[in-house]
Specification:
It is built from three helices and two strands; from the N terminus they run αββαα. By secondary structure, the chain is mainly alpha-helical. Helix 1 runs antiparallel to helix 3. The relative contact order is 0.18.
């Protein structure tokens, strides 16, 4: 019975590893969502503090007329408000998080499958010896 307890403990640890992988993948998905929001949603810029009528800006990625990318020369404040490095930094931070999440999820899943396989092979061996 000692082997069964060890196997159950091994599977519990594998489940915890897989759960951490899922948590990291959810964090990476939130980072990707934040990056998409920064790039695809329109936004507003105050021309001065407590501005009652802020300037509306198009999204960084889907812009026509250059209001988000080339308007600084015309006095357009949209370019300064949402900058490309912020969105790219969020995306860059999500890469190691997602890689670790995939590694942990895969490791935990494989450990559980290997444990189940080993236990099934042991049961088959015991059944064969009993005959």
């Amino acid at each position: 019975m000692r082997a069964r307890e060890y196997d159950l403990d091994y599977r519990d640890r594998a489940t915890r590893i897989r759960t951490w992988g899922v948590v990291l993948l959810v964090v990476a998905a939130l980072q990707w969502t934040w990056c998409v929001m920064l790039l695809l949603t329109p936004y507003e810029v105050d021309r001065k503090p407590d501005d009652q009528h802020p300037q509306e800006c198009e999204s960084r990625l889907l812009t026509e007329y250059g209001t988000a990318n080339g308007g600084l020369q015309r006095g357009d404040r949209c370019e300064d408000e949402r900058d490309w490095p912020e969105a790219l930094a969020v995306l860059a931070l999500s890469v190691p998080v997602s890689a670790a999440g995939v590694a942990l999820f895969t490791t935990g899943s494989l450990r559980r499958q290997i444990s189940a396989h080993a236990w099934a092979m042991r049961e088959l061996g015991e059944n064969t010896r009993a005959r």
